[in-house]
Amino acid sequence: MMPTDRNGYEIGETVEGFTLKSTSGEMISLSDYNSEKGVILIFDCNTCPFSQGYNERIKALHRKYADQGFPVLAINPNDPQVSPGDSFDKMVAYATDKNFPHTYVQDTSQEVTRAFGATNTPHVFVLNNENGSFKVAYIGAIDNNSRDASAATEHYVEDAVEALLNGNEPPVTSAKAIGCSIKWKRS
Amino acid sequence: MKNRFIILLFIFFITVRPDPVNAQDQEIQVVKFDALESILNSDSEKIQVINFWATWCAPCIKELPYFVKAGDEYENQIDLHLISLDYADQADKVSAFASRKSLDGNVVILDEVDYNSWIDKVDPSWSGAIPATLFINPKTGERIFMERQMTYEDLVNELNALLN
Hints:
The structure holds two protein chains of two kinds.
Chain A: E1 19-22, E2 27-29, E3 38-43, H1 49-65, E4 72-76, H2 88-97, E5 103-106, H3 111-116, E6 120-121, E7 123-130, E8 133-140, H4 156-165, E9 174-175, E10 179-181
Chain B: H1 2-15, E1 29-31, H2 33-40, E2 47-53, H3 58-73, E3 78-84, H4 91-100, E4 107-110, H5 119-122, E5 129-130, E6 132-137, E7 142-146, H6 152-163
Parallel strand pairs in B: 1-4, 2-3, 3-4
Antiparallel strand pairs in B: 2-6, 6-7
């Protein structure tokens, strides 16, 4: 049965390194981002309507912040046996079709997803690079209106990244949202 | 001859529209958080079973029939609330789905997309993923929160735990 309570990384904790396969075919490691100021890490997928609704906003985050040192790294946590629309081939097709400017990798073993304690998609972890160790600075939703980006009044991820770029703590460090549950492997 | 074909084609299209919104589909109420809050604070004699679901959520759809079955089996002991988190502009879709699955009467759409403002009020341990279900015994104040897909057996076990 899938885990219920979140018991992954908390705010301020250092994230362990990982290496996952990207839709480009390359193996991507967290350490590849050592020269960046941080990473906007997003557990995301092809199939969840909330993920789909946030596609453009996720692309916009990358376009806005990659050059400033906070690129988006999207991780698909879903088990393709349980969610066939999230197979590696479907991910490649989806990333191509949607013109993803950001990296999209697959967590086939779900170990990274478990370590983070991700629970739903899209689920964001903003990581701040502090002398080579990536620390969790924000956990949660992208903004407070999944239906309509223009109606959102809180932009949690942007506010967190802006604060970090200015050397400050994020004003809000976590915000919950309704989302699709992660499709865990059947044990 | 050609005209007749066009007419037939027209009749074909208007009669086999996929998933039409039927006149007999029950209108689904769209509510705000205060409606959910009054269920959370209910002083009913019955156990309040509050299930959060959506038409786009596959595991939710799998477990819904068990809730309907329990709603019948425990008719005198529980109040069943099927809270749809579909967007309010999807009311027709929810309504057609509810009629098809005989859910009507128990379904409302909760139109509150500023999720962080109310998720913790349902249960602080809730991540926001669905399906999720809250059981409340208003007489004892006892609450059980489940953030996962349930089987009928799971459901009966939780109900019996609260009823005994």
